Amino acid sequence: MELQKRKVLIFVLLSLFICLTASGLSLAVDNEECLDCHGDPDFSVELPDGKTRSLYVDPQKFKVSVHGSNDVACTDCHTDLTELNYDNEVPHHTPAAFVNCGDCHDEEQSAYERSVHANARSAGKKGAPICYNCHNYHYTKHLAAHTVVERENEFCLRCHDPYKYHNWLPQKNTHFNYVECSVCHAPETGRHVHLRLYDLMTEKFLSGPEILQKLGVDYDTFLKKFDKNGDGKIDYSEFGDIVDALRMKRIRAVFWGELAVELDPKLHSVTKGKAIKNCETCHSINSPFFKDVRLLFTKPDGSVDFVPVTRNVLESFHVTHFYVLDATRVRILDIIGILIVLGGMAFAGGHMTLRILTIPLRRKKR
Predict the structure, then answer these.
(1) Which of 17, 55, 178, 263 is such that its CA lies 20 to 30 A from the CA of 155?
(2) pLDDT per residue over 279-299, tens digit each?
(3) How far does the chain reach from its first CA to its final CA, in angstroms?
(4) Is the domain of 276 the same as that of 307?
(5) In the predicted model, is pLDDT for residue 329 greater than 80?
(6) Largest CA distance in the chain
(7) Are residues 196 and 310 in the same domain?
(8) Domain co-membership, 218 together with 318
(9) Domain total of the chain
(10) Inter-axis angle of helices 208-215 and 219-226, to 10 degrees?
(11) Could you read off the pLDDT of 150-162 as tens digits, one per residue?
(12) Cross-strand bridge partners of residue 45
């Protein structure tokens, strides 16, 4: 019995030792050690062709990146670099192994493998993009708060000039500026209309904290104050209340409307031949693309909070740059149009009535 207890104790101690050793290996190199060299702006390496490649990683930019803010260690990606030997000129083996983003981002990797980019790479096409060509590994940012133009400049427009193609598409500038490329080129991905507050007085977008501070609420109490009917969404009249409240704070608010995609793994399955080309997909009163409408509250780190709003908010003249033929209607324009028609009818009717009433006078004059 005593022997059995000893065996169990030895097994427990041995297991503990293995765990601690493994943990020690994974923590053998911390980020500060890496940045001792890579944090030097002049740190570079000379390539065989005589060119110089910078190996600098900006510590502050990395710290506020998605990876840095989530405490991702350098060795979580560079898994082959488990220890450093400072007796050598370069304290680790070179070159470092290729970083496989799919080790963590497996869903994104699967979607990418179905994309036109992966197909081009498989075919041996020079310059076919991999993760790094779109995402800077060390400075990956939240993108939810970016405008459509910012997203496109960050990704698609690095390689593609949309004006060389899309000859079938009317009003190219409008589409390219307010509809994200992936809306049509990643059909599997969800879509939504996001509304960002733009102040005409300062001529800038207002961040979420600025908006909430002006309204005297926080994110948790925003709906309680403005969602009068308690349905969890901001409807047309409640939207007007927000605009009025901002006007009282000397903010001339308009809401910048854009059609964007959900930032989920399916986004990476970008297609070419299967891209949406049917105009009625958007330009229809029953378009599914406008069912999900959101009021965005952007955060300093680039992430967002959002409040759902009803589709009829798109009919408000406070929503700019988002009038979609056959899909949205601006109510005030309808009212103005009706008034013009009624005014014309009233003028014509009044003129005719006056002519009839003055027939005796005109006869008498003659």
Answers:
(1) 55
(2) 888 888 888 888 899 999 998
(3) 137
(4) yes
(5) no
(6) 138
(7) yes
(8) yes
(9) 2
(10) 50
(11) 988 888 998 899 9
(12) 53
**274 and 349 fall within a common domain:** no
The predicted structure's pLDDT at residue 277:
86
Range of the domain at 344: 332-365
Residue at token pair 């952007």: 298
* SS3 annotation, the chain: CHHHHHHHHHHHHHHHHHHHHHHHHHCCCCHHHHHHHHCCCCCEEECCCCCEEECCCCHHHHHCCHHHHCCCCHHHHCCCCCCCCCCCCCCCCCCCCCCCHHHCCHHHHHHHCCCHHHHHHHCCCCCCCCHHHHCCHHHCCCCCCCCHHHHHHHCHHHHCCHHHCCCCCCCHHHHHHHECHHHHHCCCCCEEEEEEEEECCCCEECCHHHHHHHHCCCHHHHHHHHCCCCCCCECHHHHHHHHHHHHHCCCCEEEEEEEEECCCHHHHCCCCCCCCCCHHHCCCCCCHHHCCEEEEEECCCCCEEEEEECHHHHHCCCEECCCCCCCCCCHHHHHHHHHHHHHHHHHHHHHHHHHHHCHHHHHHHC
Whose tokens are 């963590």? That residue is 104
